């Protein structure tokens, strides 16, 4: 093989290796949710606002990549699915979030610890995401069943004339609905108040009822809206 051919072969080999490497992407988010309706619809509401705000200003603030997958899976399986998505992704996500509720899953604490050990951030709710939605309007530390939180949201949606006057899991505009009267910032404040006594590594999320760390994810995303 001549020197020119050898040079071309090495150049092609380098090009091939570059294609095999994943590119780290700043300000990128992968959000994998347990629910297939309310959680992804809520988070896609934030995603849309971020895209609408940043638009052509990418030279000042790089628009985050936010991929949201509603998987409808058990908690531990959801972490495994997240791992699969991460491995198959064409980029290296800077922030990987897994969003799930306790509901009746017995692997709740295990899934949280497993996700954290893999470097993921966990936005959990005990008992359900509906508790997080309730905090957009009122504070509560009452340990209620998820059906009770749904019922409370029914009354709120009727009181505030939201949607068709009752809480539904498939409202595409759910983020803006509950953000009435600065609801998102209210929810963050209420969640911080509730979680102030939670001790990481000591308290079990499954026993901290009610509780939610969804505010941590929402805070991170809102930094792009509040700048």
Quick overview:
With 227 residues, the protein is of the alpha/beta class. It has helices at 3-20, 38-54, 75-88, 108-117, 129-134, 146-159, 174-178, 183-195, 214-226, and strands spanning 23-33, 65-70, 91-101, 121-126, 211-212.
Describe this entry's structure for a reader.
The chain has 227 residues and is of the alpha/beta class. It is 48% helix and 16% strand. Strand 1, helix 2 and strand 2 form a beta-alpha-beta unit. It is globular and about 75 Å long.
Taking the sheet with the most strands, its summary is: 5 strands, mixed
Helix content: 40-55%
CA-atom Rg in angstroms: 21 Å
Structural class: alpha/beta
How many beta-strand segments? 5
Low-confidence stretches: 15-19, 56-63
What proportion of the residues form beta strands (DSSP E)?
15-25%
What is the approximate shape? globular
- What's the arrangement of strands in the largest beta sheet? 2-1-3-4-5
Key phrases:
227 residues; 5 strands; alpha/beta; 16% strand
Record the SSE blueprint.
Layout: H1 3-20, E1 23-33, H2 38-54, E2 65-70, H3 75-88, E3 91-101, H4 108-117, E4 121-126, H5 129-134, H6 146-159, H7 174-178, H8 183-195, E5 211-212, H9 214-226
Parallel strand pairs: 1-2, 1-3, 3-4
Antiparallel strand pairs: 4-5
Helix pairs in contact: 2-9, 3-4, 8-9
């Amino acid at each position: 093989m001549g020197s020119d051919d050898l040079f071309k072969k090495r150049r092609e080999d380098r090009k091939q290796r570059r294609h095999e490497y994943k590119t780290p992407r700043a300000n990128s988010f992968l959000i994998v949710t347990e629910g297939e309706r309310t959680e992804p619809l809520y988070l896609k509401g934030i995603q849309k606002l971020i895209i609408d705000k940043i638009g052509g200003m990418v030279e000042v603030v790089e628009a985050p990549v936010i991929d949201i997958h509603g998987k409808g899976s058990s908690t531990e399986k959801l972490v495994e699915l997240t791992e699969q998505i991460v491995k198959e992704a064409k980029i290296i996500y800077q922030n990987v979030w897994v969003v799930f509720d306790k509901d009746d899953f017995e692997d709740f604490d295990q899934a949280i610890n497993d996700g954290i050990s893999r470097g993921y951030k966990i936005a959990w709710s005990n008992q359900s995401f509906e508790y997080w939605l309730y905090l957009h309007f009122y504070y509560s530390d009452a340990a209620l069943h998820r059906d009770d939180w749904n019922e409370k949201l029914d009354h709120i949606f009727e009181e505030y004339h939201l949607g068709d006057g009752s809480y539904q899991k498939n409202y595409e505009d759910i983020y803006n609905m509950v953000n009435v009267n600065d609801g998102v910032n209210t929810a963050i404040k209420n969640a911080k108040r509730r979680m102030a006594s939670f001790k990481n590594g000591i308290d079990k999320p499954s026993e901290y009822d009610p509780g939610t760390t969804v505010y941590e994810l929402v805070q991170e995303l809102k930094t792009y809206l509040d700048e």
